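The authors assume throughout that readers already know how a fold can be written as discrete tokens. A single example would do more here than another paragraph of explanation. An entry of this sort, consisting of the sequence and the corresponding backbone structure tokens, reads as follows:
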Amino acid sequence: MAVDTAAASEAILIVGGGPAGTVLAGRLARQGHAVTLVGAPRAAAWEGLSPRVVEALRRAGCAHAAEAAGVPARRLAHWNGATSEHNEEYVLARAAFDAALKRDAQDAGVTVVAASVARLGKDGPLWAACDAGGSVLGSGRFLVEARGRRAPAAGRVVAGGPRTVAVVRSYRGAPPERPVSAAASFPDGWAWMAAFPDGTRVVQFLLSADAVPMRAGLIALHEELMRAVPEAADWVAGATPVDSATTRDATATLRGDLVEVDYLRVGDAAVTIDPLSGNGVFEALRGAFAASAAVATLLASPDDLPLVRRFVEERASALFHHAAEIGRAFYRGETRWTDRPFWRERAGWPAAEEPADNEPAPAPAPGIRAQAVVVGERVAEREVLVTPQHPRGVLTIAGVELAPLLKRAQVVGEDALAGDASTQAALAWLKANRFLERSSASTGP
């Protein structure tokens, strides 16, 4: 393994070509870093994106990816015996979407290498990614592991939800008048369908892992489920299968060992969430913004590793547990099959502490806490204001840091702080969240 030491000494190497890796690569390149992104073309997969994801792509400078999302589809839900239509979502093939993300990264100045990494290791102080023949595909001083669920399990599993597997098959039929997606629950799981403008229809069943056979039995299982779930049969009426059935892991997992002085795991390589509990692509985009600050901080100041580690691990844990609670609420919303193992297990995870005597749990009191946050393009420790709606805390409103403003208001009074529109907006937030009603002592750490 031969590495160009001079060229790689200040470079960042990112392995993995999905949303987390490519958006992070583009962001770091725009900050002036030399970035190499190595990622193999994605196998067939499909995704539903909420409108906020497409807007986030535009804000991140990913014009090609936003355009690849196409037009929004109707989103239908068949849940707990009722049918409803909820907003819209964009349905897309991930291979084309990821290719568009790579074009956005190239436009930002990233060196993109479309290849599979067979070996990843260090040559002295530098990381290097090699192909099966030992040729170096990319190298750098700092490594970002962004290969999603396929990333080697270097990080220990800190927490995990019920083991869930998606069984997927695509069909070809008449093009719909408008793209549409739908979800439906059934006794042993739930299903998702997307109908694309070209007539492709994708049907995915989410099941307990122990209900999924080896590859040889996947087609038979998918066909059995198509017959058993009435909505699924309607989804593909007049369409014919165009490939075999495949599987993908859909288990919620939180990993540890996410960051070292020259290494960071991002996206699904760090946290995976149940598909019912949120949009993984949106969280990958949010994570890319946080990750860019973590990488920039470690490159500039390696001694800040403890602070960056706290920032990365607290953020990952908060995402994992928040998504788990959202998913539990959706699973509990299906009450027809509470005795079935699939629903019973997921409606009870994570275990929730029930208030005594059916009384509502008291809301956490507002307060101030020291938190690792992003300030500019770096991770720093600042005091943030915590509320029940913002358990990780709020640093600024309208660009004004809240904790110093609150402390000044407690000394000189709110009326003495009349200022510009930004200050007034921050004061209004403090008042709305009852911080100005509290004494200095009660808002202490």
Remarks:
- Residues 354-361, 439-445 have pLDDT under 50 and may be disordered.
- The two ends are 52 Å apart (CA to CA).
